[in-house]
Automatic annotation (TrEMBL):
It comes from Streptomyces populi. This is Lysine 2,3-aminomutase. InterPro entries: Aldolase_TIM, Lys_aminomutase/Glu_NH3_mut, rSAM, rSAM_sf. Gene3D superfamilies: Aldolase class I. Its cofactor is pyridoxal 5'-phosphate. Residues 1-17 have a biased composition (Polar residues). Residues 1-23 are annotated as: Disordered. PANTHER family: L-LYSINE 2,3-AMINOMUTASE AQ_1632-RELATED, LYSINE 2,3-AMINOMUTASE-RELATED. GO terms for molecular function: 4 iron, 4 sulfur cluster binding; catalytic activity; metal ion binding. Keywords: 4Fe-4S, Iron, Iron-sulfur, Metal-binding, Pyridoxal phosphate, S-adenosyl-L-methionine.
Length: 445
């Protein structure tokens, strides 16, 4: 196939100046924190958090995204570095005590495991409820929750270029194999999709599939092009925000773009589901150049991200994010509510406040950016959208609907929950008007 690719900008192309990916792990945390003045106790607390929840970042995030003069309030610092308040106080104390006394490694690991297990590692029943079965075998690297869409978790894609502190995928990263969802059985994936022609859409996700080399990614993508019923392929990724050189100067960047072109040429919709959290992620020239190159392949970039306390909990941040991504030719897709896992107590924003932020931002953007839906909770029954608050028959209520549902009959039916200004998740809600359920078929969870 001939390629219409523009070369990457020459300034970033020469071997001498090509940025090289450099990962930072908990071992580097102390060194990185030398850039700010923190009391020793706080430093220890951050190390304690990093012993429980995964910490990983890279040279691009540290040198080009974080504004170190604004730390500790800088949104990208808060997005990628541990914060003491992320763990319950007693857990934090236990962990800092262990580190302070240089406890044996096994003891630290055991304590970390116990704390993780209390953090609801797999919300919404994702480890059991969505796993498809084919010819009597559970396909544990796939999730099939909505009839038309299957999620594929490639084994080699279960990490990220850097980790978001609020990541609900954290069990994928902490080396606890019982908690991982992943497959490398590509033949079984294909067999399942052939047996299920109702699946028109596949979403390759992780972690981040873009951490895989193009050669490995190809092994997951190309077999999908042999299945006529698969009409769209999505790739969920944070790479545009955290490592745009994946599309510019990485050794196999050009091969990657050719792979994307090949999918488009097959007559399928190819979408990069780009995870953006804050407009600061869109400022470096590298991300803009990367978005140009991706769009030039014919792929669509759709943007989504969660609303998180202390990082992007303002209408201004979201309006700028939606306006800027739209200007760069991408399409705003979902605004998520922070899930009920990991440090949700720290990052969660009440639903009433989420909706207010959504509405205030939505009102500031042109119709082109109003493709976005939100705030959305990806919960057990499906994707629940908070449409707003209202007063009905003298009662203050939340108005909600399901954008996606396990049971397609529930999609698009408005329902009501009693207003609760502190509710942060679907499980906090009760049906309005003293009813026993939200809708026939949609019960309390
Ligand atoms: C969001 C989601 C999808 C995709 O839903 P769309 O509405 O098509 O974007 C599929 N599976 C799961 C489990 C999801 O959370
Ligand atoms: S980009 Fe996504 S998968 Fe990666 S750490 Fe952030 S939330 Fe998790």
């Amino acid at each position: 196939m001939s390629s219409t690719l523009d070369p990457a900008p020459t300034s970033t192309r020469s071997p001498d100046t090509s940025p090289r990916f450099r990962a930072f792990t908990p071992r580097d945390l102390d060194g990185l924190l030398q850039r700010v003045s923190l009391p020793p106790d706080e430093r220890l607390a951050l190390r304690a958090v990093a012993a429980v929840l995964p910490f990983r970042t890279n040279s691009y995030v540290v040198d080009e995204l974080i504004d170190w003069t604004a730390v500790p309030d800088d949104p990208i610092f808060r997005l990628t570095f541990p914060q003491a308040e992320m763990l319950p106080e007693s857990d934090l104390k236990q962990m800092t005590d262990l580190l302070r006394h240089e406890a044996p490694k096994a003891e630290v690991l055991r304590a970390a495991h116990e704390i993780r297990m209390r953090l609801n590692p797999h919300p919404s029943g994702q480890l059991d409820a969505n796993v498809p079965v084919h010819e009597g075998r559970r396909l544990t690297g796939l999730q099939h929750k909505y009839p038309e869409t299957v999620l594929v978790f490639p084994r080699q894609g279960q990490t990220c270029h850097a980790y978001c502190t609020y990541c609900f995928r954290w069990p994928q990263f902490v080396g606890e194999s019982d908690l991982r969802i992943a497959t490398d059985d590509i033949a079984a994936t294909s067999a399942y999709l052939r047996a299920h022609p109702e699946v028109t859409s596949t979403l390759i996700t992780g972690g981040d599939p873009m951490v895989m080399s193009t050669e490995v990614l190809r092994r997951y993508v190309e077999p999908l092009l042999e299945i006529d019923t698969v009409r769209s392929i999505r790739i969920g990724t944070k790479s545009l925000a955290f490592w745009p050189y994946r599309f510019l100067t990485d050794r196999d960047a050009d091969d990657l773009l050719r792979l994307l072109e090949k999918v488009v040429a097959s007559g399928r919709n190819l979408a990069l589901m780009a995870h953006f959290t804050h407009p600061q992620e869109l400022r470096p020239p590298a991300v803009r150049a990367a978005m140009r190159r991706v769009r030039d392949t014919g792929a669509v970039i759709r943007c989504q991200g969660p609303l998180v306390r202390g990082i992007n909990d303002s209408a201004e941040a979201w309006a700028e994010l939606w306006n800027e991504t739209t200007a760069l030719g991408a399409v705003p897709y979902y605004q998520f509510v922070e899930r009920d896992t990991g440090p949700q107590g720290y990052f969660g924003v009440p639903l009433a406040r989420c909706h207010q932020i959504f509405r205030d931002a939505y009102a500031q953007v042109s119709g082109l950016a109003r493709t976005v839906r939100g705030p959305v909770m990806s919960a057990m029954p499906g994707k629940v959208c908070v449409d707003g608050t209202a007063e009905v028959a003298g009662e203050k209520v939340f108005v909600l609907h399901l954008i996606q549902a396990r049971d397609p009959d529930l999609v698009g039916r408005p329902f009501f929950a009693a207003y609760d200004e502190r509710a942060t998740w679907f499980s906090d809600l009760k049906p309005a008007f003293g009813a026993s359920r939200f809708l026939p078929g949609l019960d309390l969870v």
